Amino acid sequence: MVKIGAAVLLVALGALLAANDNDPVQLGIAVVAAAGLLVWGVRDLVAPVRLTADPAGITVISGYAGQRHLPWTAVERIRVDTRPRLGLRTETLEVDAGDSLHLFSRYDLGTAPTEVAETLRRVQATHSTGVTGEPPR
User: Are β-strands 101-105 and 57-62 bridged in parallel, bridged antiparallel, or unpaired?
Assistant: First the structure.
């Protein structure tokens, strides 16, 4: 909802600046930026859950708002990639399913990717048929 509200405010600000300066370019830039925010915000409303796990496997987001189920036997590796970025440490959960790689940030998961990776490995070890993820570090 914050993204959608920001999109509305951005258009209003662009219209205000364009009216004061009599410059339609400012309004055009504001509308394009607001459209991007709006699309991003609608995706969050349409598909709020990015990753779920159950005894049969995991379901990941696919495309804009679709879902794809991956059985545990298709999951080759679950790991967390940690990189320094702009002076901060960022973590990304990687789910490798052989023919596809699914990446999830803390924002996508709502919690630390390390915690999610550990939980996924536990569920996979409990329910998979001999395939295990990368051992916890």
Answer: unpaired
Q: What is the DSSP string of 8-75?
A: HHHHHHHHHHHHHHT-HHHHHHHHHHHHHHHHHHHHHHH----EEEETTEEEEEETTTEEEEEEGGG-
pLDDT tens digit at each of 137 positions of the chain: 788 888 888 888 887 777 777 777 778 888 888 888 888 788 777 767 788 888 989 998 887 778 899 999 999 999 999 998 888 889 999 999 988 999 998 888 889 999 999 999 999 888 765 444 444 44
Rounded to whole angstroms, the Cα distance separating 34 from 111 reads 27
Read off the pTM.
0.67
